[in-house]
Amino acid sequence: MIEENNILETINMIRLYNLDIRTVTLALSLRDCISEDVDKLCENIYNKIKKYAKNLVYYADELAEEYSIPIINKRIAVTPISLIGEACKNPDYVKIAKTLDKAGKEVGVNFIGGFSALVEKGFTKGDKLLMESIPEALASTERVCSSINVASSKSGINMDAVLKMSEIIKKTAEMTKEKDSIGSAKLVVFCNAPGDNPFMAGAFCGVGEPECALNVGVSGPGVVRASVQALGKDADMSELANKIKQTAYKITSTGELIGRKLSKKLGIPFGVIDLSLAPTPEVGDSVAGIFQAMGLEHAGACGTTAALAMLNDAVKKGGIMASSHVGGLSGAFIPVSEDAGMIEAADKGYLSINKLEAMTAVCSVGLDMIAIPGDTSNDVIAGLIADEMAIGMINKKTTAVRIIPAIGKKAGDKVVFGGLLGEAPVMPVNNLSSADFVNRGGRIPAPIHSLNN
Questions:
Q1: What is the DSSP secondary-structure string of 172-221?
Q2: Is residue 279, in this structure, part of any structural domain at all?
């Protein structure tokens, strides 16, 4: 018999503390869509997405109403498109992107990820063509998201790809400058990218994934913050960690329940649940707010990295007890523009890019949704990416860079995207040149622990 207190607690999580299912993401293999003719390929892609995703939004909304749990985003992640398009005799990756966008619009999803390539060890012809097409593809679509994996703990860092991506990020920003360079907000550079990630912009269906699966991403920073606040200032670190674990267990259980119900309705396998605490611009739904509840004056104070490390670890420990199918990124996100507390900290100068980089050593992802001056040089952007890739490579973890060079804007200005992408102050960047370093090219070798077979 479910206790009355547990029922009331779950209701409060939803109504008072912004508990929601952040995303249900249909991972879909497009490998059987390959054709030598790009028109036939696009037709195959369109038909397959329509077939498998036609009821995704309808059933998700139905479950949300039945259980009174908001499901914020419905998304699709497909096989990296560089693999799908390179067999064409007349490859046109922009046309493929527009096909993805059209299919996504017709089935009603918010985003469709997988305009991606995996180039940590080098490029194929298809990889190069896709990368070159990213600026136009993202500027001419609404829902398409792109990701490029340029490094891994096994392969090292492809510095040629890092330098290329710095150019592509800048060009994408320029082609969408009328919308505060929003194209770059849909583009992420990865080290150790997971193939079952339900969160955009980095979601894609990995080559080891099944034909299709349903992956779920939960939320819950507001719930964790409320739980920590309820403990009071006298609780020691062990009590604090245990409370976060208990809360993460409840959040994960809710997410898995919805995920399994939805996968059953769709008639497809349940994939993974991603435990990541995904903040929003809503007041109270903030990872930075958790730091304050822990006892820091604000995000960016000395001790922030330690607090984040404990939070990330406790979330993983609590979530793993609630589900045997944990995957994706799983931990705590620290995107600037998508977290009200992080926005405030950046506005007040409490957070610098250097401090954010230090925090990425212990968080789920990396330098995420950070606006920088539009005149930042390509070599500085490449250096930023290389630094973040090194953190992921050495620590055997996923890291990423999603930065927005705000064309025509300088430090202290603001970019506004709306919705979950939020808004952000343009943050200053160290403009000391790294050109001679990043232009060496080649591959930074993998660390010694890559030889661990």
A1: HHHHTGGGTTGGGGGEEEEES--TT--SSSS----TTS-SEEEEEEE--H
A2: yes
295 and 366 within one domain:
yes
Same-domain status, 419 and 355: yes
Considering the domain architecture, whether residues 158 and 264 belong to the same structural domain is answered as no
Q: What is the DSSP string of 99-158?
A: HHHHHHHHHT-SEEEEEEEE-SS---HHHHHHHHHHHHHHHS-SSEEEEEEEEETTTEEE
Total structural domains within the chain: 2
Q: What pLDDT, on a 0 to 100 scale, did the predictor assign at position 16?
A: 52
Burial of 452 (0-12, 13-18, 19+ CB in 10 A): exposed
- 315 and 436 share one domain: yes
Angstrom distance (rounded) from CA 115 to CA 92 = 13
The CATH number of the domain holding residue 352 is 3.20.70.20
Judgement on whether residues 133 and 238 belong to the same structural domain of the protein? no
Cα 215 to Cα 274: distance, rounded to the nearest angstrom: 8
Query: pLDDT class for 300, splitting at 50, 70, 90?
Result: very high
Mean pLDDT, residues 162-179: 96
End of a domain among 191, 209, 240?
191
271-276-280 Cα angle (round to 5): 120
As a whole number of angstroms, the distance between CA 148 and CA 167 comes to 13
Distance CA 372, CA 413 (A): 10
Residue 145 and residue 29 in one domain = yes
Of 314, 294, 359, 304, nearest in space to 333 by CA: 359
- Say if residues 303 and 362 touch (Cβ distance below 8 Å): no
Q: In angstroms, what CA-CA distances link 365 with 200, 294, 360, 392?
A: 12, 21, 7, 9
pTM, two decimals, is 0.92
d(CA 247, CA 290): 13
Amino acid of residue 127: D
The predicted-structure confidence for 340-390, as pLDDT tens digits, reads as follows: 899 999 999 999 999 999 999 998 788 999 999 999 999 999 999 999 999
Q: Are 179 and 141 in contact (CB under 8 A)?
A: no
Q: Domain span at residue 251?
A: 217-448
| % residues pLDDT > 90 (the chain) | 71
> Per-residue confidence at 41, pLDDT binned at 50, 70, 90?
very high
Same domain, yes or no: 140 and 71: yes
Do residue 166 and residue 272 come from a single domain?
no
